[in-house]
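$ run holo --ligand "fe (ii) ion" --emit tokens
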Amino acid sequence: MNILGINAYHGNASAALVCDGRLVAAVEEERFNRVKYAAGFPVAAIRYCLEAGGIRIQDVDHIAIPRNPWARLGTKLWFALRMPRFARERARVLARFVGIPEALAAAFDCDPAQIRAKFHRVEHHQAHLASAFFVSPFEQAALLSADGLGDFASTMWGAGEANKMRIDGSIAFPHSLGMYYTAVTQYLGFRKFGDEYKIMGLAAYGQPTYLEEFRRIVRSDGGVGFRLNLDYFIHHRTGPDMSWSSADQTPEIGPMFSDYMAERLGPTRDPEAPLEQHHRDAACTLQARLEEVLFEMLNALHARTGQKSLCLAGGVAFNCIANGRIFDRTPFERVFVQPAAGDAGLAIGAAYFVDHQILGRPREFVMEHSYWGPEFSPEQLRTAIASSRLSGSSLEITELPEEELARAAAQEIAAGRILGWFQGRAEWGPRALGNRSIVADPRRPEMKDILNRRIKHREIFRPFAPSILEEATSEYFEKSYPSPFMTLAYAVRPEKRDVIPAPTHVDGTGRLQTVSRQANPRYWRLISEFAKLTGVPVVLNTSFNDNEPIVCRPEEAIDCFLRTNMDALVLGNVLVRKPVTAADSPSVASKPSAQARQ
Ligand SMILES: [Fe+2]
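-- output --
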């Protein structure tokens, strides 16, 4: 039984293949076409999934599309009549959905009649809920999905048991926590698609000084619901202005905040203007109000369902700060957030919705790691090196047995050098989790600045993340519930903040990845070797890229390594080292903190 899930003509276009209940492959189109958050039709992602499963498009039994044009049809028509431009855009996108069988046939060079798969339309938020629950380790759980907008809803909740989900309620456009976050993000001068997570980092630098005002912007109803005060917004008048259909460009999103928001909060920030304390406080209040509403909703959801386990999905589920506080602010004892909690995850959600909810097959799969993307054989890695500018360069290139390699790589990191780490299958979701990562010494306070200056070129207020051996979590963090997908942030223990200053945010939190030996033995070994050298079972982990989608192929990793100031690169078992120069590696001169050496 082969089920192909396709998130098409929507941000984070992606594909996933489920064969006999087991996930075989899942990947975002952006990893292939190198367009961040690419929308359009994910031909390359579908092609990869079929190759990984060893099947042809003609062998697929079911195709699951996470969009249902019939969902909330009355609301859609009502808004379409008021907003002709929006209606035209919707009609254009829907026409593309109708043409998916032909698009598949053209991509795989076959007659449309040869595609025997049955097509299923799964409502956006039901696919989100399925993407979390059906691959979670929980037999039963409360479920919540929250994002900007999908099939004209922003929020949906219910409960799951065994191979079925029950939907208990939803919130329709224009009320949306995702749009609330986006609107204030835009007001703060961050206008690009996906900028919301930057504001989450900025929030730690402010105080929630505008909480009373923000309580007027989002009104909770004391239950699972909430309402936006639409005076502060324009999306309900202009339509949700988003461009989804082109594969060759990052999606764009139109303005959502009103003049009234600027009247109440002060002038909007120009994207080029410096950040002031007012902006930091507004970001902090935005986050604080989101958490207030979210925790009220979760407490109400807990009261209704009586469940101890919670599955979260949708873009709001990437709010790792809020996620990490769930254990303190709600009675939930277990939380599962799948690594592609946003719209890429719809591909696996739709596929598993068909597998369980529609076909009634039993659950037999738990997502224990995020490595569902392309991988490259040792021979392919050697060929990539031989045909690159590395070959014939003066750089030191050595192939080592695995244990020796981990030791040598750990020595590089401990010496303050920045290491590109490319292994195995690419990660599913937006976080690099030890297979397409840049790894550095967490003990050096200056490492964040060095990474930004030499490689990442990110806003200085954005934190870097720690990867920690799972078994050492409680030693360094105030919570120890596993966070294998970097979707939870916990407070670093006060006595450890000076030990790992580089990935500790200004508010003392860290968006951690807990690394188990079982989930990623090579990365676990690397961190273990670093711990043997330094006494610290933590490395700083950031994605292997420079303002682009995370590298997928070895050629992209080599290119990123050569064009940035990375010091060393590991591709499989091959270690490439640039020479040590004082000017090139200022971090080498720095000493780790005294506490770290003890
Ligand atoms: Fe969504």
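-- notes --
DSSP finds 22 helices and 24 strands in the chain.
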